[in-house]
Amino acid sequence: MKRIEKHVWIYAFRKSVPIVYTGAFQFILISFFNGAASPVTIAMTAFLMNSRQVFYSLTFLKDFSEMGHRKLYMIHAMTDETYAVNCTIELSGQEKEDAMFLVAFISRCS
User: Fold this and answer.
1) How far apart are CA 80 and CA 53, in angstroms?
2) So what's the pLDDT on residue 97?
3) Do the Cβ atoms of 22 and 49 come closer than 8 Å?
4) How far from 65 is each of 38, 69, 85, CA to CA, in Å?
5) pLDDT digits over 43-102, tens only?
6) pLDDT tens for residues 13-23?
7) Of 18, 43, 73, 84, which alpha carbon lies 20 to 30 A from 110's?
8) CA 35, CA 6: separation in Å to the nearest integer?
């Protein structure tokens, strides 16, 4: 147990880079590693915490359905920040779609 506690920052860094998309889950994941939580518990918690993005996407269903092949990416890339910025875009038509895509892409890259 001491070894895990001593090097837990390594696990946090490794999980935050390519895998964990929800920032709040990174903090919970550290507790799970320290407490030796089961993989099922970790997976279910991650699923439930990430599912809130689906509800964000419901707000933009009409906009996303008009985006063609970018629709699935837009649903997947919806985060708290992307949702907040996309709610403030006052453009229309293709300009709005392009702006929303750019916001999602930049948010995902950063």
Assistant:
1) 8
2) 93
3) yes
4) 38, 9, 19
5) 888 888 878 777 888 888 889 889 989 988 888 888 888 899 999 999 989 999 999 999
6) 665 554 566 67
7) 43
8) 14
Query: CA 18 to CA 15: how far, in whole Å?
Result: 7
Separation in Å, CA 67 to CA 24, 42, 43, 78, 109 = 30, 34, 31, 14, 20
> How far is 103 from 47, CA to CA, in rounded Å?
24
Q: Tell me, what DSSP letter sits at residue 90?
A: -
Is the pTM higher than 0.70?
no
Beta-carbon contacts of residue 11 (< 8 Å; ≥ 6 apart): 29, 30, 33
Distance between CA 103 and CA 96 in Å, rounded?
10
Contact 20, 29 (CB under 8 A): yes
Written as six digits, the tokens of 81 are 């920040």
Q: Tokens for 26?
A: 């990174």
